[in-house]
Fold these 3 entries.
Entry 1:
Amino acid sequence: MRQEFEVTLEPLLSVPVERELPFRQRLWQHGWLRKGLILIVLAIIWEAVARYQNNDLLLPSFLQTFQALFDGLRSGELLSKVSISLAVLLKGYLIGIVLAFALTTLAVSTQLGRDLLSTLTSMFNPLPAIALLPLALLWFGLGQNSLIFVLVHSVLWALALNTYSGFLGVSETLRMAGRNYGLKGMRFVLFILIPAALPSILAGLKIGWAFAWRTLIAAELVFGATSGKGGLGWYIFQNRNELYTDKVFAGLAVVILIGLLVENLVFNTFERLTVKRWGMQR
């Protein structure tokens, strides 16, 4: 047997050791700081333009809008409006997700399903969701069901298209591996197609969320209160009629803040725990 031995290596003193990055550069690596600076710069520009124009009715300043936002949150009025809108939004969003996955599962399983998905998306995807609101009022009456109908329409086709394109992009190697394990039907979709197509599915979920959020606000502006209760869009519409422009901007700011929170706290966290952790996305 060969005798074991150990060689002690001398330290490479001639090679320079990389020093730690300066504090400023390490701080600049945080995305939340860069995005926060962008928001601060935008707020400063807003305040400067509003002061230069000097017309609160047309463009209230950032400080006036912030005060209106603070008063609305302190009184609980804005929170109640947001809760009403989010409750309707989540119902329509979840129903749209279920229908989208049902359509795409049928599309990857049968030729008839592919033809059905292609035909329906070509017909209804270019159709604005808000254009269906008059029909929804005739079919479902005054209430949340009309808003849920237009929300499902705004979510369904964008998510179905992204999911189906993600399924088509799954490599043949993964498909063969799933078939070798005996996976068929729904099990094949759940354990092979969905994990492999998750980046496209997440992109569809983001697009569907954005479409649903802006469709809901637009529908509430046109449709008004549902079942005697108005959401965030109705809050903006009422204050516009009463010429409370600072409250209108406060309502719009809440719409933007909710979009930022959902994007950074929900979708980015899910991406970090899944596709980025798995090395599927940079």
Note: DSSP finds twelve helices and no strands in the chain.
Entry 2:
Amino acid sequence: MNKPRVFGGSLNSLDKNRLGRLLTAMVTPFDAQGEIDYQQARRLALALLDSGSDGVVVSGTTGEAPTLSKEEKLRLFSEIKSAVADRGAVVAGTGNNDTKESQEVTKEAEKIGVDACLLVVPYYNRPTQQGLWEHFKDIAQSTTLPCIIYNVPSRTVTNLAADTLIKLSQIDNIVGVKEASGNLGQIVGIIQGTREDFLVYSGNDSDTFPILALGGYGVISVASHLVGIQIKDMMEKFLNSEAREAAKIHRHLLPLINALFIVSNPVPLKWALNYAGFPVGKPRLPLVEPDEKSANLIQTTLKNYKIDLPIPKG
């Protein structure tokens, strides 16, 4: 359990489950009527792969999963997988706070051909650690897909304890965690206690460099919509023992990261993408566009950064 983790030095070589180190938690584009713009979603997925991402996470927090119907999610998985094909990984956000429904959506996503699923800690119903263990175990046993657990207590209230995750990591197809607790002590415990090939992803862009330094694997990123090549460069430099240069890039990106979370994600990100020239529409209610003060801060911050995302002409 305590052996150093060896995943290979290149960001370009995907791990055994073909997921990659830099995954983007993709927004869901909407049209003027608030319906999913599936063609624009396909374009965005490909643009993200062209700007550094190894794959995309579809229908997560950034994708406004709570406002998507089951039918919308499944079509989105199908459209994105069809567009991406073998160019990168498609991780489907199939988990919610209903174990049975999570199993059903995961099974359907597997039929579509996605590469993995993302299973969020159940929100609102506040299960115990035993309940979390049984919830994730039952979903994992209902599929052959690699499963990444998503711990984000700022949104779910409930924290998935390190001991529970370590126990879950012993299930073969639970292959990793998106850790957005911000608790580096907990993350150290996870890295030390899980099996050697277990993938610990940063769930917060601001934590990516520290988690890599602790032995983490990669990041499921929001900021990579805009600066994916720069994030990839930071990670590549760290893996190539250029920690000082990697830290410099990470520090440079922090003001942008902070601006993208000035109000609830994905509100600032969607505004930034629209401003940059890649239309993704407004968020769905109950989320609304940022107030004028927040929008001005996002706009001012963006002017200090090179945008890596290919912007459509015209």
Note: Residues 57 and 271 are 20 Å apart (CA to CA).
Entry 3:
Amino acid sequence: MRQELSSSFTTRQYMLAGQYELYYYSDQVLQLVPVHAHDFYEFYFFLDGNVTIRIRDRLYPLHSGDVVIIPPGVMHQAMSGNTPAGDRSPSPPYRRFVLWISPEYLEHLMSMGGDFSRLIGTEVPSGRQRNAKGGHVLHLDEISFNSVQARVFSLLEEINTQRYGWETFVSLGFAGLLMQLTRIAYEQENKESIRPGTLYESTVRYIENHIEEQLTLDNLSDRLHVSKYHLSHLFKEKIGISLHRYITDKRLSLCLDALYAGEQVGDACLKFGFTDYSSFYRAFVRRYGISPRQYMQQHRDSGKIRLPQDISAH
């Protein structure tokens, strides 16, 4: 994460802006804030550190990828987590995104068509909250959290650079971010009731859950119990591209999300199914028409992403 986007943490727990505030914090030591509540919604994206959060009377040890949703009026406090006895390893920096949204602005976002009631536990009629949940924690897998980080990173850039149309971009970005979290919350709460769906949906779901594995037509056909002929024509008929192209594009997209989140390209390409950097490089050039270095340089120059060290020489 680019350090120029980070803010110095203060113990202030009230909004200066009327609609929303978004911060990236990176601290070596947690500054303890007393137990408190807000008159706005807090979305807390935990990146790293040794932290436990208290929400009312419950304690939640946090892990990278956790998203904490705290509605207005809910007492809470972040505190240092428990370090195992005898563990003298240095504690990682305490890194997190913090998003504050007023009930009125949330109502505006919901008017754009998003139903966030499953996420926040309430509808927001006439700017007033009701039946809000007592705060809860979403546990996101690495792929989902990389995608969330990429969205937050983009929003921070827009807020800081204030390029033409930034206010509209930010409103749409917040709506998309909250809708993504709402979908994750829904799917986590309804795992048993979600139907297998069509073959296309089942194939997409299988690819997403096994993206780091070798995904060939043969093993997909075997796993999904369908003929190779039928499977090979499915994606062409459904979205106009081959199954192989879909898998490659999915892997490239996940790699870019990871790079936006600050991961090194060598780690990202191996994590998402490329056998080595060379295969990632060739696929990237075929997809985007330029090298990874050129792509990253363009986005760094536009203020969207930093250039990872392990790609700068390629």
Note: Confidence is low (pLDDT under 50) at residues 122-132, 303-314.
